[in-house]
């Protein structure tokens, strides 16, 4: 019997590892669709940002209450992983609380900490469900934000409910285990005197008082399996979900933009064109990007700006996989606030959806498959793009340093420079700048006329 | 009693260079500061302050051109770089080191975006510059209008605040006035855009439930302020239009921080 459980456990473990590896490779391949860009510079600054923003959750504390609640789930997640180690070893070796005899004095303290965190996670998940469905926090409501309709809301709910189930399984497992230990049943009894009651689960023991020994063992086994299989299933599920942020959040912050928020990225391929047009000597970009290491000109750039995910940078694509769909960006966006179609969260979700559609294409038609869709047009519309004021509120609001504005700008560049599709009044502004050196139709020779009024009384 | 007649001068770089002279700072006026009737008054107020404290400055005058900010943000990178390269040629030709500008868009572009194209300058926004003058005691607000009992609220511009993390300088400048500073709910990093950035100023807004500037002005009026202080030409227009939209132009005024300082000094 025991050996059968062990085999089953190892099979589940290996299957999960195999499947997750497959998913990770698929996602990595999709992120690699993006254009290369060196984000390995300034390691010190990047590390510091990651420690503050990802590990320290700095931006989550912009709203202290939610910050604390999220921190409980986050700490619970990281610390309970230590406990998984014992569960996995128990599962493989067919042992029961393997570590207990070796670290007797600290063991109960450890489990108490896990229990407190598990209870905290449980409470926070219930509060988070209430925020969504009872307090109806605006940024999380599908009626107000079309990008949330359908799967995104289910995804969020599934995760919260799953976490509640996992935590209940963990706490009741400890409780039923304690009762079996008290009764001295089988190998459970062996730990009598070694392992005491635990901080939270001791209060759940009365629930099991009426159980027969057999029923109790059955419950204990079920809860144990539910907890560990649930965790394995969760790990697989995460690769399909906005919950991928629990893994990608860290590298995403590490590789995030370091320049001032107002600085829009330069296009060195255009610098060359402009230098030629103005009859200036062609220089290399500040980052040497015009000329590669061999001193050759790099291959011609395919497009100015971005039409599809392949034209974006890999960091834009990693951003999309990391997005938690929390909507802080959208709640801060002046265009969204005033009812325009633009929602920065939707920009990120569309980018991810586009990549997932491409992935599905690869899986059904082979790795060279290409459909005739593109991010611009089939997912994101011109109306959304044109509404952006480039105010960077979304960039500032994102707890994991995602930059929706960067994608918006690259799509705008494609529309304007490749498709000549700017709104008519923008075209007028462009030609004014070109002809009059100002966005308005004034003669450049009148530019200094204001000086005549300097001595007039106001 | 004879009233002292103040005369203000606006030297150009061309004149200075011709006489072999160099200014301490270049005042970058910007397109709005040069052409927009309302914003010209801000330019003039700032020039009067510069004259008053006796700083040796110059402007480019007709040699100045749009930095290219609205073109770049609307997606026309080619046009932006054409403007940038031409401006950099002029600035480098005059060997400019230090630039002051009242426009956060010009400020951001000159400071953050020109270096990669070969234009490296120390760029200062006029709020920082005025803050410096006040700290050094070169500007004392007492000779002109009194601000006692007036309520002023400051609207953060995106390209000054979030873009470049300048939140305190304009507030410090306003604190020099003897007024009540009241803050709106969305301020500093959480400030709400006026609705004009990213090229929006030059086109109709997309359909929605409200215009951004109206949303922002409602918030500003909610503070009970009689003066909305701004530090950006686009914010100036958007806030003024919003106040008109709410029919409050008789009781609520929109001023640039340099105008308030000039008023306080009687310039
Ligand atoms: S930068 Fe654009 S998308 Fe982001 S908050 Fe501002 S208007 Fe919205
Ligand atoms: S981009 Fe950032 S702020 Fe916006 S929904 Fe995604 S995680 Fe949240």
Summarize the topology.
The complex is a heterodimer of chains A (458) and B (267).
Chain A: H1 2-31, H2 43-55, H3 64-93, H4 107-133, H5 151-183, H6 186-189, H7 213-238, H8 245-254, H9 268-277, H10 314-322, H11 328-332, H12 334-337, H13 344-365, H14 375-379, H15 382-386, H16 393-397, H17 404-418, H18 424-436
Helix pairs in contact in A: 1-3, 1-7, 1-13, 2-8, 3-4, 4-5, 5-7, 8-10, 10-13, 13-17
Chain B: H1 13-18, E1 25-28, H2 30-35, H3 37-53, E2 57-58, H4 69-74, H5 77-93, E3 98-101, H6 104-113, E4 122-125, H7 126-135, E5 151-154, H8 168-175, E6 180-182, H9 212-221, E7 227-230, H10 233-245, E8 253-256, H11 257-265
Parallel strand pairs in B: 1-2, 1-3, 3-4, 5-6, 5-7, 7-8
Helix pairs in contact in B: 3-11, 7-8, 9-10
The structure holds iron/sulfur cluster (SF4) (2 copies).
Task: Explain the overall architecture.
The complex is a heterodimer of chains A (458) and B (267). Chain A has 18 helices and no strands. In chain A, 37% of the residues are buried. The longest helix of chain A is centred in the middle third of the chain and has 33 residues. In chain A, α2 runs antiparallel to α8. Chain A has 458 residues and is mainly alpha-helical. Chain B is an alpha/beta fold. In chain B, 42% of the residues lie in helices and 11% in strands. In chain B, the strands form two sheets. Chain B has a four-stranded parallel sheet. Chain B has a four-stranded parallel sheet with strand order 6-5-7-8, sandwiched between helices. In chain B, α10 links the parallel β7 and β8. The interface between A and B is large, with 74 and 76 residues. Bound molecules: iron/sulfur cluster (SF4) (2 copies).
Name the beta content range of chain B: 5-15%
Helix fraction of chain A by DSSP (H/I, runs of at least 4) = 55-70%
* Poorly predicted segments of chain A: 286-296
The N- to C-terminal Cα distance of chain B equals 19 Å
Major sheet details of chain A: none
The multimeric state of the shown protein is: heterodimer
Number of DSSP E strands of chain B: 8
Q: What is the radius of gyration of chain A?
A: 28 Å
The largest contact between protein chains, plus residue counts on each side, is: A-B, 74 and 76 residues
Describe the main β-sheet of chain B briefly: 4 strands, parallel
Number of helices of chain B: 11
Distance between the termini of chain A: 96 Å
Secondary-structure content class of chain B: alpha/beta
- Mean residue pLDDT of chain A: 93
Bound molecules: iron/sulfur cluster
């Amino acid at each position: 019997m025991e050996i059968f459980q062990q085999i089953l456990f190892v099979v589940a473990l290996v299957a999960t590892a195999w499947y997750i590896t497959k998913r990770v490779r698929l996602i990595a391949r999709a992120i690699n669709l993006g254009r290369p860009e060196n984000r390995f510079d300034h390691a010190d600054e990047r590390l510091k940002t990651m420690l503050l923003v990802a590990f320290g959750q700095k931006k989550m504390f912009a709203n202290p209450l939610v910050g604390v609640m999220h921190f409980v789930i986050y700490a619970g997640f990281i610390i309970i992983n230590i406990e998984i180690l014992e569960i996995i070893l128990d599962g493989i070796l067919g042992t029961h609380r393997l570590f207990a005899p070796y670290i007797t004095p600290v063991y109960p303290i450890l489990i108490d900490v896990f229990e407190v965190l598990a209870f905290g996670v449980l409470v926070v998940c219930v509060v988070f469900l209430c925020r969504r469905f009872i307090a109806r926090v605006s940024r999380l409501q599908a009626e107000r934000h079309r990008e949330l309709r359908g799967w995104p809301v289910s995804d969020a709910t599934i995760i919260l409910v799953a976490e509640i189930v996992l935590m209940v399984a963990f706490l009741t497992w400890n409780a039923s285990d304690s009762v079996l230990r008290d009764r001295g049943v089988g190998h459970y009894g062996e730990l009598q005197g070694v392992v005491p009651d635990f901080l939270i689960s001791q209060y759940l023991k009365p629930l099991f008082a009426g159980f027969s020994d057999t029923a109790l063992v059955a419950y204990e086994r079920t809860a144990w399996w539910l907890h560990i299989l649930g965790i394995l299933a969760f790990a697989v599920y995460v690769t399909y979900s906005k919950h991928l942020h629990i893994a990608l959040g860290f590298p995403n912050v590490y590789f995030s933009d370091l320049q001032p928020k107002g600085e829009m990225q330069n296009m060195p391929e255009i610098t060359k064109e402009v230098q030629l047009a103005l009859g200036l000597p062609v220089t290399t970009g500040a980052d040497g990007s015009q000329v590669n290491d061999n001193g050759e000109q790099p291959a011609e750039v395919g497009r100015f700006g971005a039409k599809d995910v392949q034209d974006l940078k890999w960091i834009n694509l990693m951003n999309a996989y990391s997005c938690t769909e929390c909507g802080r960006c959208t709640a801060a966006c002046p265009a969204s606030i005033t009812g325009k179609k633009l929602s920065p969260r939707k920009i990120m979700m569309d980018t991810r959806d586009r990549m997932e559609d491409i992935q599905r294409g690869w899986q059904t038609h082979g790795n060279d498959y290409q459909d005739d869709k593109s991010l611009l047009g089939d997912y994101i519309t011109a109306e959304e793009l044109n509404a952006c004021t480039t105010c960077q509120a979304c960039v500032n609001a994102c707890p994991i340093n995602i930059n929706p504005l960067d994608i918006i700008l690259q799509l705008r560049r494609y529309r304007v420079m490749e498709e000549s599709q700017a709104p008519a009044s923008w075209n007028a502004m462009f030609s004014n700048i070109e002809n009059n050196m100002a966005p308005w139709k004034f003669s450049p020779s009148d530019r200094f006329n204001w000086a005549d009024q300097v001595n007039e009384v106001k | 009693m004879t009233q002292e007649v103040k005369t203000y001068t606006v030297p150009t770089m061309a004149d200075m260079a011709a006489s072999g002279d160099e200014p301490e700072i270049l005042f970058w006026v910007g397109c709005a500061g040069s052409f927009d009737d309302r914003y010209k008054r801000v330019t003039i107020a700032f020039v009067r302050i510069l004259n008053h404290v006796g700083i040796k400055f110059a402007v480019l005058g007709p040699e100045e051109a749009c930095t290219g900010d609205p073109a770049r943000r609307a997606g026309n990178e080619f046009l932006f770089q054409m403007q940038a390269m031409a401006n950099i040629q002029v600035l480098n030709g005059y060997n400019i080191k230090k630039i002051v500008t009242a426009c956060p868009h010009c400020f951001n572009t000159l400071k953050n975006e020109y270096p990669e194209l070969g234009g490296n300058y120390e760029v200062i926004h006029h709020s920082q510059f005025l803050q410096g003058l006040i700290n050094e005691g070169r500007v004392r607000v007492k000779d002109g209008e009194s601000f006692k009992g007036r309520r002023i609220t400051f609207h953060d511009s995106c390209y000054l605040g979030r873009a470049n993390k300048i939140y305190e300088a304009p507030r410090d400048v306003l604190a020099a006035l003897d007024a009540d500073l009241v803050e709106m709910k969305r301020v500093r990093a959480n400030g709400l855009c006026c609705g004009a950035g990213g090229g929006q100023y030059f086109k109709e807004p997309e359909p929605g439930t409200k215009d951004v500037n109206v949303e922002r002005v409602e918030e500003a009026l909610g503070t009970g302020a009689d003066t909305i202080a701004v530090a950006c030409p686009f914010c100036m227009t958007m806030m003024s239009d919003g106040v008109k939209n709410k029919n409050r132009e008789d009781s609520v005024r929109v001023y640039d921080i340099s105008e308030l300082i000039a008023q306080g000094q009687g310039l």
